[in-house]
Amino acid sequence: MKKTLLALTVCSLVPVGCANPGSVVCNSTGNTFAVSPATATANHSSAAPGNQAQFSSTLTPTYPAGCPVPAIVVAAYPTWTNPDPLDISISSAQNSTNGLAVCSGMTSGAVTLTATETTTQQTYSQNVTLTCQ
């Protein structure tokens, strides 16, 4: 009797542990916003590209557990906030120059630049640092 009960218990647990593939709705639940590199250094007295740093941004859709994840990574063109416009300029253009920072003067240390991307779902922000030598 005990062996039969154990077998029935184990067999009844198997269906509970397996999700029905049709029960998970595989719509994107949002995005992951990433900016790289996290830190950069450029020499303000060098000619281009030595006085520049290029930051790039991506949006990657996120999905619920159990969903096949498509390989989608979208280039993002965020708006950049720069607290030191005298020594650094950074492009917020909606093209390949977005995130291109140019050092025109020496900074006293690392300057925090903020990339902000707004989608219909949410606003994302990431900080990076740039040192102009």
Structure description:
The protein is mostly beta strands and 133 residues long. It has one domain: Immunoglobulins (Immunoglobulin-like, Sandwich). The protein has one helix and ten strands. The chain has a four-stranded mixed beta sheet, with no helix packed on it. It has a three-stranded antiparallel beta sheet with strand order 1-4-5, with no helix packed on it. Strands 3-8-7 form a three-stranded antiparallel beta sheet, with no helix packed on it. Strand 9 and strand 10 form a beta hairpin. It is elongated, with a radius of gyration of 24 Å. The N and C termini lie far apart (80 Å).
Give the uncertain stretches in residue-range form: 1-20
Order of helices and strands: HEEEEEEEEEE
Major β-sheet annotation: 4 strands, mixed
Shape: elongated
CATH superfamily: Immunoglobulins
* Integer average pLDDT: 83
Strand order of the largest sheet: 2-10-9-6
Q: In which range does the helix fraction lie?
A: 10-25%
Q: Which CATH architecture would you pick?
A: Sandwich
Rounded to an integer in angstroms, the radius of gyration calculated over CA atoms is 24 Å
Cα(first) to Cα(last) distance is 80 Å
CATH fold name, please? Immunoglobulin-like
Share of β-strand residues: 35-45%
Structural class label: mainly beta
Index terms:
39% strand; mainly beta; 133 residues; disordered N terminus; 12% helix; 4-stranded mixed beta sheet; 3-stranded antiparallel beta sheet; Immunoglobulin-like
